[in-house]
Design brief:
Blueprint: H1 3-17, H2 24-31, H3 35-38, H4 45-68, H5 74-91, H6 93-102, H7 108-134, H8 143-160, H9 169-182
Helix pairs in contact: 1-2, 1-4, 1-6, 4-5, 4-6, 4-7, 5-6, 5-7, 5-8, 5-9, 7-8
Length: about 190
């Protein structure tokens, strides 16, 4: 058993039971080990949560940074970022669910450490929105609000999306991109 095994199991348990509903015994049970064995690798459930949030943000930041750094118009970049982000959420549902829904469970000290990491990720999106405004591609008066609105729509998808549902995640991403970029008006 490795620390990565513990994190993988914890992500699954936290997604199913929530951070506060999950216990170290639940995580140990998912790994089929004694609870005491976990403490050779981690000190606390709070440490596991922060490690999962860092893992998720690192993965998403790396993925989105690759797209956002490409030389192309901001609207095309944003479309690819939306597709990449939703695909990453769907492909890593246990891990990203913990990021999106359990970050509020961080204690104050750990939360303070987490916020700059989250802000770096959101900054990638703001940069592309600002790039679009500067290039006169986007008419957006408050890019921060636009980013938060888009993130809210995309993040909520994880609560209802099913891989075997009516639409593939790529189609959902394209429809979100159309809504963001074209709006509702004819």
């Amino acid at each position: 058993m490795t620390r990565d095994d513990i994190l993988d199991a914890a992500a699954q348990v936290f997604r199913q039971k929530g951070f506060h509903g999950a216990s170290m015994s639940d995580i140990a049970g998912a790994l089929d080990v004694q609870k005491a064995s976990l403490y050779h690798h981690v000190e606390s459930k709070q440490e596991i949560l922060l490690a999962l949030l860092d893992r998720a943000l690192d993965m998403l930041t790396d993925h989105i940074a690759l797209i956002s750094s490409q030389a192309m118009p901001a609207d095309q970049k944003l479309r690819l970022m939306i597709r990449g982000y939703l695909s990453a959420l769907a492909d890593n549902a246990d891990l990203t669910s913990v990021l999106l829904f359990e970050h509020r469970s961080l204690d104050k000290k750990t939360h303070t450490r987490h916020v700059p990491h989250r802000d770096t990720f959101e900054g990638l999106w703001r940069d592309v929105f600002n790039e679009g405004v500067n290039e006169k591609i986007f008419d957006c008066k408050d890019t921060g609000m636009a980013v938060r609105a888009l993130m809210g729509v995309m993040n909520w998808t994880l609560t209802w999306y099913r891989p075997n549902g009516g639409k593939p995640i790529e189609q959902i991403a394209d429809e979100y991109a159309d809504l963001m970029l074209k709006g509702l008006l004819k």
